[in-house]
Write a structure and sequence with these properties.
alpha/beta; Rossmann fold; five-stranded mixed β-sheet; 36% helix; globular
């Protein structure tokens, strides 16, 4: 991998209404042809480490259910999602634990710059490929934010 390579990882189920937000973000970024490697995962687990290890910079996008208004966009750190008791009902707890494990076990292989974007869901129980309007709008905003981040000066 190149020294300044970005990897953008979208996490979610493409068949569940708002849980698909992270995957949709990466699909839209890929269509823009931005200077990054695009990865997707359907679930959170140690596969996350396989997708981001070796890249110098990484962005992870996932849906969450934390009690915020639907469509809220949260930019959090690994420590935020590792230590917060508010994330107990979200798979972001597993994401935090996974990332913290990667930092401890593979300190020289983990991205030096890591951005985590969470989008608060409205409905993750309906099987549909149509997101709620609030989450759809948030996905667009996250794509724009990541596009700006990807075109900033390298490390």
């Amino acid at each position: 991998m190149e020294k300044d390579e970005w990897v953008v990882l979208g996490i979610g189920n493409p068949y569940l209404q708002d849980d698909r937000a992270g995957v949709v973000v990466t699909e839209r970024l890929e269509a823009l042809g931005l200077p990054c490697r695009i990865e997707q995962l359907l679930t959170v687990g140690f596969e996350v480490l396989d997708k981001i290890r070796g890249a110098s910079r990484a962005i992870i996008v996932d849906a969450c259910k934390l009690g915020n208004p639907p469509g809220s966009i949260l930019q959090v750190s690994v420590d935020d999602i590792f230590s917060s008791h508010h994330l107990v009902n979200s798979h972001a707890v597993t994401l935090g634990t996974t990332l913290k494990t990667g930092i401890i076990c593979f300190p020289d292989e983990m991205p030096k710059e890591l951005h985590i974007w969470l989008i608060e869901v409205k409905d993750i129980s309906e099987f549909t490929q149509v997101m709620s309007p609030e989450v759809e709008q948030a996905v667009g905003e996250v794509v724009e934010g990541i596009q700006r981040l990807l075109t900033e000066q390298p490390l």
